[in-house]
Design goal:
homodimer, 303 residues, alpha/beta, Rossmann fold, 6-stranded parallel β-sheet
């Protein structure tokens, strides 16, 4: 099966990337960028597929960005699986893959940092100080090198997609952001490169993350609007599976500010540790429609 | 004389700027950018002239950037002289001038900041906290909107030109930086939009800035290599004219780290206040050639 696969063109320098993109643009092709840290899985593949559907040149990048890892995080053990990544990229028809050495991204003397402000502060921003500064800096750098028309990110990293959206808006970059649906295992676990850290037991317990999100959605569907009540139920779900909760939040989907009542569209976000592995997940929460809520209220003599 | 002057094309939105630049680029013209805060003088005119010599489209920008002024600085009283500015730009054959409203630069919700690291820390960075963050953020934004091939800055704002150089290097921007010589009044005062704040008496006393730089150059020419000695003489010159010194420095021209001895090329920088007006100036300092230094040493029995 692999014999008739065309490998993506491997680019390792910023100059090669610039030339390749300029060629495609001169030929009138739309440039789609899929930034990754490698250790690719079906979630990344769905981003490549989306880019291929919309763009004439699909460029993946693989760069395990040191500046978005904290000092006690998993930078050194983060999975590096370049050979397998190239097979996956070939299978999905990726045109080019940019695999820079660190000095292509961070030339000697590099000290510039980019901060996007309040949307980067809560949740991941609190648990992982400096993380989004690293993300914003490397994403802006990749955007400026690759000059894409469209950039594809996974909704699994929900807050990251908001950070990238801020960058694009604040600098007026001519880039359309596509945030693609989270891809899940059949049992609900969101795909993540970090899932391969999990033992068999942890893998089973990790299902509590997606279960807690489904629980939140069900509670809201059934009429529970009070955030504290919903979050308490989510925490109980995670704790029962012996996950060490980092945060459970029901927040505004644009600002990530906490909501007291689910009286408008929200997003539920969770982060927890299983042993040394830290996983995150999220789902949009659709509030009751007005009519439904009205009926619920009418049938409740206390209201 | 003004009747046959062609006014520069006035652009007020980011979109107008983008379209204009794209047209010129498609026509094969090189784009030259001259970012200013208006209140234009012969120093700015020299930047326009340099851009015209090198580029097919010369774009000036006029934007008094609020984020590079501290809370107690002169943002509100900074001179706004748009009519005169347009005449000067027309006289020097400027093709376009981008005069954005603040929301074109800082759209609602704008919170992103750019910091360039150590070169922005000393001197102006210490005296004006946040200044270079404001500069780096707005310059990067202007670069991304205008996409120039060449950008022109004045050497009078020496540390600013280093900050801009860091931005270009760190983000791999395809922009050449031209740092153009300081333009001075016949008596030596460096041109600055802030000179118009000076009373007649202050105007006279302000000459101590350029005199202190000339003094440093003369001392080095005459064989004084000890930085502390030179800086002491410069301070005496400034103090004699009743200037309130903010800093006097002899520094490495790339890093702005202080030098103990002028045994290699250096830059002398001064900042001082006259009443409410804060002025800066700088000059390169060329050390003695080895041969000259050797002869001086040989003739000095103490060495």
């Amino acid at each position: 099966m692999h014999t008739d696969l065309k490998s993506p063109e491997l680019l390792t320098t910023a100059e090669q990337l610039r030339v390749r993109v300029a060629q495609a643009r001169a030929a009138g092709r739309k440039i789609g960028l899929v930034p990754t840290m490698g250790a690719l899985h079906a979630g990344h593949a769905s981003l490549i597929d989306a880019a291929r559907r919309e763009c004439g040149l699909t460029v993946a990048t693989i760069f395990v960005n040191p500046t978005q890892f904290g000092p006690n995080e998993d930078f050194s053990r983060y999975p590096r699986t370049l050979e397998g990544d190239l097979v996956l990229l070939a299978r999905h028809g990726t045109d080019c893959v940019f695999v820079p050495t660190p000095d292509q991204i961070y030339p000697p003397g590099f000290e510039t940092t980019v901060d996007v402000g309040s949307v980067a502060q809560p949740l991941e921003g609190t648990c992982r100080p400096g993380h989004f500064q690293g993300v914003a800096t490397v994403v802006l750098k990749l955007f400026l090198l690759a000059q894409p028309d469209v950039a594809f990110f996974g909704r699994k990293d929900y807050q990251q997609s908001l950070v990238v959206g801020c960058l694009i808006r604040d600098f007026g970059l001519p880039i359309e952001l596509r945030v693609c649906a989270t891809i899940r295992e059949p049992d609900g676990l969101a795909l993540s490169s970090r899932n391969r850290y999990l033992s068999a037991d942890e893998r089973q317990r990790a299902l509590a993350l997606s279960r807690s999100l489904a629980l939140a959605a069900r509670l809201v569907r059934e009429g529970t609007l009070d955030t504290a009540t919903i979050e308490r139920a989510m925490r109980a779900e995670l704790t029962a599976a012996q996950l060490a909760i980092e945060y459970v939040a029901l927040a505004d989907p644009e600002t990530l500010l906490p909501l007291a009542q689910i009286d408008r569209p929200a997003v539920a976000l969770v982060a927890a540790r299983l042993g040394k592995t830290r996983l995150i997940d999220n789902e949009p929460i659709t509030p009751l429609k007005n009519g439904t809520r009205l009926r619920a209220s009418l049938s409740d003599p206390r209201e």
